[in-house]
Amino acid sequence: MTKDEQLRYSRHVIMPEVGADGQRRLNEARVLCIGAGGLGSPAALYLAAAGIGKLGLVDFDDVDLSNLQRQILHGTKDVGRKKLDSARDRLRDANPNIEIETHECRFTSKNALEIVSGYDVVVDGSDNFPTRYLSNDVCVFAKKPNVYGSVFRFEGQTTVFAPHLGGPCYRCLFPEPPPPGSVPNCAQAGVLGVLPGIVGTIQANEAIKLILDVGESLVGRLLYFDALKMKFREFNLRRDPQCPVCGDSPTITEPIDYEQFCGVSTNVPTISVRELKQKLDAQESFQLVDVREPFEHEIANIDSAQLIPLGELPDRLNELDRDRLTIVHCHSGMRSAQAVRLLRDAGFANAFNLEGGIAKWSDEIDSDVPRY
To answer: Could you say which of 139, 169, 172, 330 is catalytic?
Structure first.
């Protein structure tokens, strides 16, 4: 270590559990963070500060004002920038001695194995089920620890999935994904801003312990946190011998189509926000259906849209005309895609999904419609 590094990492070096050898391990380690958002922000910051030699980031999104309540890698000046550009600047400021490798792309079945192969530990900060199943599977295939974290409103959970270290994988805990639309994301349900910070720093802690080979990792244990009650609970996890990925006779040995597996494929007819604007301006006859929740409709809405929450749609089909053009929207296009499939199965042959939802409407058509 250089003199500057000796001073920078001195509080590590004086700890018997770390020492100079441990710090060298950290300096030589390679950690991949999937996502530079709520969980990825604190995890990446503390990993960078700890001196992780190579820190990888996977993200493809831009910084939005609504991110700043919890995504501490980014600031007000970064709104509109690529998250990876903002993250790189912040992490270099935190520690200019480390290598930062960015992957500006979606984490997909086509690139996941190649990306993960360059790292020792994966920190999964994703917020959707296809990516979680994908990151789990490729980590099992590559025998890399997967430091998992998730947050929802006031609740968070963390564990380390590592079958090669004797623990279970994500599929052992969740063999099947939940039905599409049944579990709202942060944009739909909200999240306490400080919660990703708590869970993300625990993820960073687990990654550092794995690299140093000290303490008791969360392999085989799920840590659950309730921010309202300020309580932690621990659950023991076991590997499932019948697991299709890490079981005794695995049936999945390479990445699959995770969008299809999780039932979130948006392969339904779509209409763009500009086409919707043209139809509204021309006063064409059609029905615009908003399948979000009432509280979302109060925050932002498109004039003339009829509010029918997705969960109520099957029982309220009689309120709609099967023969008219039907355009369905939600926040970003996921729930409305599910609604369009439901409508078409019910005989609405002329039902279309508004691509990008009201978020894209606000971005491209009417900036007076609030973003959330």
So the answer is: 330
Q: Could you tell me the CA-to-CA distances from 112 to 149, 217, 294 in Å, in that order?
A: 19, 25, 38
Q: Check if 3-261 and 270-364 are the same fold.
A: no
Q: Note if 330 is an active site residue.
A: yes
What is the pLDDT confidence band of residue 100, given thresholds at 50, 70 and 90?
very high
Over residues 24-75, the pLDDT tens digits come to: 999 999 999 999 999 999 999 999 999 999 999 999 999 999 999 999 999 9
Q: Write the DSSP string, 30-66.
A: EEEEE-SSTTHHHHHHHHHHHT-SEEEEEE-PBP-GG
Pairing state between β 99-104 and 54-59 = parallel
In this model, does residue 266 exceed pLDDT 80? no
Say how far apart CA 75 and CA 89 lie, in whole Å: 11
With 80 as the cut, is the pLDDT of residue 83 above it?
yes
Task: Provide φ and ψ at 29, rounded to 5°.
Answer: -80, 155
- Map out the domains of the chain as residue ranges: 3-261, 270-364
Contacts of 79 (CB under 8 A, 6+ apart): 63, 64, 65, 68
Tokens 């296809």 belong to which residue? 130
pLDDT surpasses 80 at 186: no
| CATH number for region 3-261 | 3.40.50.720
The active-site residue, picked from 33, 169, 186, 262, is 186
Question: d(Cα 52, Cα 23) in Å, to the nearest integer?
Answer: 9
Please state the rounded mean pLDDT for residues 111-139.
97
Specify the CATH number of the domain 270-364.
Answer: 3.40.250.10
